[in-house]
TrEMBL record:
It comes from the Bacteria. The keyword Transferase applies. It comes from Mycolicibacterium parafortuitum (Mycobacterium parafortuitum). Coiled coil: none annotated. This is S-adenosyl-L-methionine-dependent methyltransferase. Belongs to the UPF0677 family. Pfam families: LCM.
Length: 299
């Protein structure tokens, strides 16, 4: 199945399964004694989706050893560095007085439930309707309660999500902390530009956004193909070549800089070093060596 305008999914299919995949890694990493973050809900969400491979990953039952990228230690470090980047981003925003957060493409992200939000914070989550409904129901059934006022918006991010967000109570006159974690490569280039322009239009001064910084080499399609082949050897049946929109696109860093945001990129290697971790040495990582994380602030 290849991507089409207006395609939809749940957490077991198409792009939705990628959300289950990262949640499985979070479940695995959360069980570490010295974990860099704790996601107490990731495991139960992955179990509820029920995709056998990711259930095994979440339970730590897959033997990844022997692969320098997919070994359990490497998988744990990778998701830990990534998760902490976005957790720390929200913590700093809260310290700086921001009380409105938007999680774009929230998938099985449980930050609304697990982060220590200051009183009065409103957290919006946007994703496909089936994804939003599933997570909300499973966590409610498990007795989990959000740690902030959580408002959900089930809509496709290629559509007019700004109106839906405003209808849910979003106040564009207040500074906002936005994250788009693991989203942009799943959008066609023009939809990515439109999304960033919409974020810009909705961002009062002092707003900020965190997302991935993609090395343009990651967009050629070669990396998605090589990554898919390796992941499938370990039992994954996700085919990134069918889910990514590869080819020319402006990076979020370039786009937001041009729109007047102040941008700061932390490469993956720098992010690993900040936690005292050894960066992964692997040909797949070398292919996209300049990738990392981007924070942009609207002045
Ligand atoms: C790799 S997952 C990341 C989920 C979450 N941010 C995380 O890091 O755990 C990609 C997410 O993007 C969402 N997504 C991708 N394209 C989307 C679109 N056009 N509209 C709404 N959601 C989208 C998917 O539903 C999925 O939840």
């Amino acid at each position: 199945m290849t991507r089409t305008d207006g395609d939809t999914w749940d957490l077991a299919t198409s792009v939705g399964a990628t959300a289950t995949s990262v949640a499985a890694s979070r479940a695995l990493a959360s069980r570490e004694p010295d974990a860099l973050f704790d996601d107490p809900y990731a495991g139960l969400l992955v179990e509820a989706v029920g995709l056998p491979h990711f259930v095994k990953v979440a339970r730590g039952e897959i033997d990844f050893e022997g692969d320098p990228l997919f070994g359990a230690r490497q998988a744990i470090d990778q998701i830990s560095v990534r998760t902490r980047y976005f957790d720390d981003f929200f913590a700093r925003a809260a310290q700086d007085g921001i009380r409105q957060a938007v999680i774009l493409a929230s998938g099985l992200d449980t930050r609304a439930y697990r982060l220590p939000w200051p009183a009065g914070t409103v957290v919006y989550e946007i994703d496909q309707p089936a994804v939003i409904e599933f997570k909300t129901r499973v966590l409610a059934d498990a007795g989990a309660t959000p740690a902030a006022e959580r408002r959900t918006v089930g809509i496709d991010l290629r559509d007019d999500w700004a109106t839906a967000l405003r209808d849910a109570g979003f106040d564009q006159d207040r500074p906002t902390a936005w994250i788009a974690e693991g989203l942009l490569i799943y959008l066609p280039p023009e939809a990515q530009d439109r999304l960033l322009d919409t974020v810009t239009a909705l961002s009062a001064p002092g707003s900020r956004i965190a997302t991935e910084h993609m090395d343009p080499k990651a967009l050629t399609g070669d990396w998605a193909k090589a990554m898919t082949e390796r992941a499938q050897r370990h039992g994954s049946d996700i085919d990134l070549t069918k889910l990514f929109y590869s080819g020319e696109r402006r990076t979020a860093t370039e786009h937001l800089s041009a729109a007047g945001w102040q941008t700061t990129v932390l490469t993956s290697n720098e992010a690993y070093a900040a936690h005292g971790l050894e960066p992964v040495r692997d040909e797949l990582v070398a292919m996209i060596g300049g990738s990392g994380y981007l924070t942009a602030v609207r002045v």
